[in-house]
Structure formats: structure tokens, C-alpha cells
Amino acid sequence: MSQGAQTDSTDARSVGVTPTEGAVTPTSAPIASGVVTSTGINKGVIAVGGGKGGIGKTLLSANLGVFLAQRGHRVVLVDADLGGANLHTCLGVKPPNTTLSDFVSRKVDNLQEVVTPTSVPNLGLVSGALDVLGAANPKYTQKLRILREVSRLQVDVVIIDLGGGTGFNILDFFLIADHGVLTVVPEPTSIENAYRFIKAAYYRRLKTAELAWNLRPLVEEAMNERSNQGLKTPADLVSYVERRDPAGGARLREEIERFPLKLVVNQVRTPEEERLGVAISEACRKYFGIHMSHLGNIPFDDAVWQSVRKRRPVLLDSPDSRASRSIIQIAGALGLGG
Amino acid sequence: MSDRGQTLYDRLELRADASAAEIEQSYRGMLAYLGAGSMAMYSMMEEDEIANLRLQVQEAYDTLKDPERRAAYDRSLARGSEGYPSLMIPASPTDTHVTVGHVMARTIDTTAAALPPRVMPEPTVARPPVESTPSPARVASAVSVVPVAPVVPATPVTSVAPVASAVPAIQVTPFVPVAEPAPVAVASIRSQLVTAPVPAVPASEEPASELPVAIEKVAALPFGGTPALTPRPWTPPPVHASPRVVRRLAPKPDAPITPETEFTGAYLRRLRESANASLDDMCEITKVGKRYLRAIEDGDFEALPAAVYVRGFVVEYARALALDPSQVAKSFMGLYKRFKGEGG
What we know:
A: 15 helices, 8 strands, B: mainly alpha, 44% helix
């Protein structure tokens, strides 16, 4: 998002994802939504999160990456599940020699050098298989460096696979994305964590957003008041600010509406579960004041776990499975189906 | 999440000119996340908050899906009654002391609004300003849809134009044994009896069934043959009286109700049936969803929401049957709490 667009990109090295990669975009523009690349799609950073483990974040990231790469887009998958990375396993790649930890420890200067090729042409991987003790919790400056470099990767699409939880490291990766995709499974635990994630991301965004000088104290006041003023949802918070400063409240509302949340429901088995995504996004709109579009569902499909055992993305292992087809539809819903 | 100032349309996120299909669609959509079995709102808010929202949506839907009730509601909206009295809002304490003149004026207003235009009476009674607080009459307005007015002029009063204060302070006992489907506010009958301002309307315009029912109702009132002329002084009803002006049923308990009487769901059902009231009638009077009424009668505590709401439902139920709400609530909630294992 804005961080990426604002950074000076002239020093970025145009290193291709695959060794044979030659068709680098002539302009070294940073990745930002709305920039149409040589391959004809909107460049973008997609972050996949959800606040809980085992809900299909890695499944969706890996297979979206495979699909887009197959379509000829240059894609880098970033395994930001620091401390619990296994995206390489899903792709059937052995733990790469260079990982995000080398970048963090400054063994390498450019994130592009950490990109490992995969069996799929055009698809690179930045592995987060961090062995360095403490690297799962990078310092703030290190994190900023990763975020900056992620935005500068000279590819069409960056897909960030986030870990579970709602820590700041996870949220900050989520918030730089052009598409923040949440996955949930139809279980109360997952839904509970998803709402926790949405709220945490939202408040983190408000904390870090560029706000007018006179709005900042009001927002902070509202956020501090939220336990004792009954400000339970983001919508309550906006109302709180709006009552005190109508114009500022309106700007805040705009800021929230730009929050690019998307939803994918995974492991869908019943017709009722098929409707869950729309129900959640409606509930979010109504009671959180947040627009979260429902991208689609991934059905519960034996092909998925079978492919994981083979350490192959389901899209390669079983391209005609219902799960594979649903992931292709989700790419389409993201505007990346072309 | 306050519902003050919200119309029933707001609750369903509809415009006031929404079609029946839109009402249905919006309701279904909201049920997808507010519905009892839905996971979509899990942890977003407390279970009882969700249950409350569900009730509000249900209430709105129940009224708006029914063309007659919707029309009556629309008219009450047009009169400037912005909000809709939620079933959670207790009757205002001031209502107990409302003068008869006031009650009548409001009731007439309500009755007029509830009548289809074809039987709209000529304004023959001077109306004092209608209070802006949600009055019990407003509650009644959503309920009373059967036009009784045309029936009354069996005893035509030629020129009635008294100011409210000139009307003798008369009240009738709220125990009106009424026949099956007759959702009529007692007060509206009362007002007709006292002022009888309405010209007769050709019976042919009425649905055949309604006329005899309404006459029967009038006949069943504890007055002489000419009710307008023989007003009976008001005496407090034997059981705890509620200030609300709503249709009252007259249950016939097989044994006298004592302070020891236990109000189980099954017993409440027997009382309701003895009053010749269907579950639909009950739903209409109490504004409580049929599902919950049934769960109360079945003693199906599992299907009931948090205690605070159940208590509200039971109180409404008791009021409708002219029972002592506090006794019924205490007894029923005792059972409920025992079931929930909260002691008691």
C-alpha cells in the first residue's frame, strides 16, 4: 500500500524470479495495486491470514501462486509464518539454503536474492524456515526492512502466507497488502479468531494510519476508552469520533472502507456452510462497519489432504478436483483470473 | 446497538416502499447470520445481544410481511410515531395515571388508524394532543386490525362532539371474554361504547365472518343492552392489573389460582386454551415470536434465549392472560433457572 508506493525504488535490483527470467518490466515501479504489468494484470501484494492455524492459509497461498504462475505471471510466495514456516513443504521444495533469516541477519542485502525457484516456472519462494533463534520475532526496524523489500520485489504478484495469531508482526504484513485475505473454516474457534484478527488489524491500521494531527488524539482517546465506553466494534469507534468531530469521523470512515478485506471459507461441506461467507461479510458490514467481500469457498475435498501428503500443491496434483476449481474461481474474484 | 428511533424498515434495512419480495429477501439474509444456529456472529457479540437483535428482526418481519399489519404500521409511522415500541421496553409508569379522556382520545386515534380507509369515521370527537411518548395505544395499533367501529352503532348516537374532559370518567373492567380471532384492543371497544361516534357502514363491505364476531364481542361485555348509556364504574380487577392497554384474554382455570400455583409451560398452555386463544393470537398480543411462545409452553428451555429475555416473554404472556405477571414470571423463571442449573 502507501508504504510501498512512497519508497524510492531506483536502487531496486531487477532480479528475475527464475534463472531464465528475462522479461523484467522496463520500469522498476514498486508493486502497487492499479499498476498494470507487462503480463496484463494488476500488480499486487496478497496477504493470507486468519488468526488461527490449520485453516488453509498455506493451501490457499501455495495454490493461488501456482495458478497465477501457470498463467504466466511472475509470482513470489513469501512464507511469513516466521517460526512455523512450511510453505516449502507444500510446494515440494526442500528447505532452501537462503531464507528470510539471511535477509534479516543481513547476510544478503536484497530480498530478491533470497527468492528460491520452485518446480513451477515463474513461481519463486521466499522461505521463512528460520532456524535463527529469535528470528521469529524480528525487531521493528528489521520488519520495516522486510516490508519495504517485499513491496519492491520485481514481480507481478507477491503472496504472503501469514502465521496464526494476531501479533503485530503478522498484522503489519497483512496491512501492507493490496488484498488482505482471511481464511476461516466453519468452526466457532476459527470464526472467533477471525473476528479477533479483524479487530486487531483494524485497530493496528488506525494506530499506524496517516491521520490528521487533530484526529489522532481523538482516535487514541477512543481506543483507550473502548473498554469502558462500550466501544466494542470498529463501527462504535467511528461513531465515537464522529460525535466529537463529524468531519474527522467521516475521514476515518473512509479510511476504514478502504481496508481491503477479503474472505475465503475453507473446508465447506454443507449448503449452510456455503452461505456462511456471505453471512459473515454481512455481519461484518452491519456490526463492525467493515466491508469484507466474500471471494468464495473451498469445498472439503479429499484431494487436498492427499496432495499435502504427496507434498504437491493440489492444483498440480489434482487439477480437476473441486478444491482446485474453487481456488481458480477465487483468483478470478481477486481480479487475477486473467 | 440501540434501536431507538429505528423503524421496522430500518431493522430490516429496507426502504418504506420495499416490496414483499424484498422484505422476504432481507429477512432471509439477516437470518443467515442472526439465526439461532448460525456461526457467523460467533464471538462478535454476546449471545443475548444476538438473541435481542434476532427478536427485533423477527418482530419487524412478522409485522411487515402481513399486508394488513404493515398498512396499520405505516399509518402509525405517518402519524409521526417514529420509533417502534420494542417488546423489551416496559410500559411507562405514567400510563397508570392516564385519564380516561386521554386514553380514549389516543384510542380513537389508534382505532381510526387501524381501520381501512373505507370505514374511516368522520372526526366527531375533539382530540386532545396525542402524547409523543410511545403509548400503550401505539402498541395496540399494531395489534388491532379488526375494524369494530362499524358494528357498534346498533345504538346510534346522533351527535357526539364532547370535548374529552366532558366525557364522564368511565372505565370498563379489562376482562373481556372474547371469541376467537378477535385481536381488538379493549380500549378501542371502550371508546366506541362511550362515544359511539361512528356511522354505520354497510355490512356487505365487511368480510362475512367479522360482523357476527364483533357483535358477539359487544354482547359479551358486562354491560346492559345499551352500553353507552349504562357505564359501570371501574373496579380494580381481582388479579394484578397491568396498565397496558392490550387485548385481554379471559382464561378459565380449572382450579382457583393461589400464590402457590406453579406456572409451568403446560399450565400456561391450558390457561391459554381455556381462553380460546390460539398461539397466533398470543403471538399477536404479546409480540413475542411464536417459536418462543411454543418453547415456553413446551417447557423447552433449550430453545429459549437468556433469562432476561425469557422473563420479558413470560411477563407479556401473563399480561395477555390477565394473570399476575410477577407471580407467573417468578414461578416460570424458577423452573428455567433450575433447568439451567443456576440454583433456585
